[in-house]
């Protein structure tokens, strides 16, 4: 599916059914720990897109840190890679609940990692070592409507 087709098809109405699906999805994912073998940020977002009836790109389901790092380098970085799959983003702070966001997670020595997550209002959820992390939406670099 071409980028234009994916991004054009991702305009889900925000109604009570949508928010019930979002709540149910978050509830089922809440205790799952980060795992490169199948529960990482891209697969988390891919599963959410699947819940909405959108086909997630196969690269969202890469297994292993090395495979993911190779893929991210090959596409020129996290942001260019997601743009190639989901189309042009909005500013991160414009994400609505249920939207996909790319968020900065601080690391040591002033560095950061970019992770994909799911906006739930003032926070973006992404898989972490002990379940879902709630990252501030203010750290979102980009967002995509679903």
Descriptive account of the structure:
This protein has 146 residues and is of the alpha+beta class. It is built from 5 helices and 6 strands, in the order αααααββββββ. It has a 6-stranded antiparallel beta sheet with strand order 1-6-2-3-4-5, with helices on one face. The chain is globular. The protein has a single domain (3-144), classed as endopeptidase fold (from Nostoc punctiforme) (Alpha-Beta Complex). The protein is 35% helix and 23% strand. The relative contact order is 0.20. Residues 1-9 have low confidence and may be disordered.
Task: Quickly describe the structure.
With 146 residues, the protein is of the alpha+beta class.
List the helices and strands and how they pair.
Layout: H1 3-9, H2 16-29, H3 41-51, H4 65-74, H5 78-86, E1 90-91, E2 100-106, E3 112-119, E4 123-128, E5 131-136, E6 140-144
Antiparallel strand pairs: 1-6, 2-3, 2-6, 3-4, 4-5
Helix pairs in contact: 1-5
């Amino acid at each position: 599916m071409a980028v234009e087709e994916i991004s054009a098809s991702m305009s889900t109405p925000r109604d009570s059914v949508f928010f019930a699906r979002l709540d149910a999805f978050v509830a089922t994912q809440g205790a799952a720990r980060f795992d490169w073998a199948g529960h990482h940020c891209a697969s988390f977002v891919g599963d959410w897109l699947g819940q909405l009836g959108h086909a997630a790109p196969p690269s969202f389901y890469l297994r292993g840190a090395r495979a993911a790092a190779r893929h991210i380098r090959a596409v020129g970085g996290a942001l260019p890679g997601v743009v190639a799959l989901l189309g042009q983003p909005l500013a991160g702070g414009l994400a609505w609940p249920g939207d996909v966001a790319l968020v900065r997670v601080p690391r040591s020595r002033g560095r950061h990692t970019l992770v994909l997550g799911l906006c739930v209002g003032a926070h973006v959820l992404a898989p972490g070592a002990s379940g879902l992390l709630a990252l501030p939406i203010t750290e979102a670099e980009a967002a995509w409507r679903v």
